[in-house]
Amino acid sequence: MYELAHEYQIQTQSIKNLKKEVKDFLLMRANWALQAGIPKERIMIDAGLDLGKTPAMSAELLRNSDDLSTLGYPVFLSASNKGFLGELSGADINSRRESSLAAHALGILLGCRILRAHDVQGSRKISDVMSAILEQRSGE
After folding, report:
1. How many alpha carbons fall within 13 Å on the CB side of residue 103?
2. How far is CA 28 from CA 35, 50, 94, in A?
3. Rounded distance, CA 37 to CA 35, Å?
4. How confident is the model over 3-19, as pLDDT tens digits?
5. Which residues contact 29 (CB under 8 A, 6 or more apart)?
6. Which residues of 37-75 are buried (b: 16+ CB within 10 A; e: fewer)?
7. What are the angstrom distances between the C-alpha of 76 and each of 48, 79, 94, 111?
8. For residue 32, what is the enclosing H or E element?
9. Cα separation, 46 vs 131, whole angstroms
10. How many Cβ atoms sit within 10 Å of the Cβ of residue 80?
């Protein structure tokens, strides 16, 4: 995993269309995993927020998480306590709880279904509330 992320970090220096390039990269890696014999149901995708990206790039990827869900794999959100949240909020690493929960709520709204969380209890509460809201919305 580190090598895949590291390889991609180097490539982000010359990105012209971030959303498309990340989506293409993730689809390529998912296909690579399938060809290696990994069952589709064991594959998830992660935009790699903060991994060699600027805060603006990470925010753009989070904002466009719904586009990744069109690839047919569960979308993993790794926003918890990330540096871009600190840049956006002005919070240091020990004060990013609210920013992380806000990112989780947005991610869930946009189709992220797996969360990496430092505040597991808070993230679970946010997830439960968002699920209830979205279920009501889809039932209208």
Report:
1. 30
2. 11, 20, 36
3. 5
4. 345 455 545 556 678 99
5. 4, 45
6. eeeeeebebbbbbbbbbebebbbbbbeebebbeeeebbb
7. 9, 9, 23, 9
8. helix 18-35
9. 21
10. 22
Q: Which residues pair with 73 in a beta bridge?
A: none
At 50, the pLDDT band (50, 70, 90 cuts) reads very high
Tokens 């390889």 — which residue?
Answer: 7
Amino acid at 32: W
* Token pair of 19 as six digits: 């959303």
Given this structure, which CATH class describes domain 2-138?
alpha beta
| pLDDT digits 0-9 by tens, 72-89 | 999 999 999 999 999 999
Asked whether residue 105 carries a pLDDT value surpassing 70, the answer given is: yes
Output the 3-class SS for 60-125: HHHHCHHHHHHHCCCEEECCCCCHHHHHHHCCCHHHCHHHHHHHHHHHHHCCEEEECCCCHHHHHH
CA dist 101 and 126 (Å) reads 7
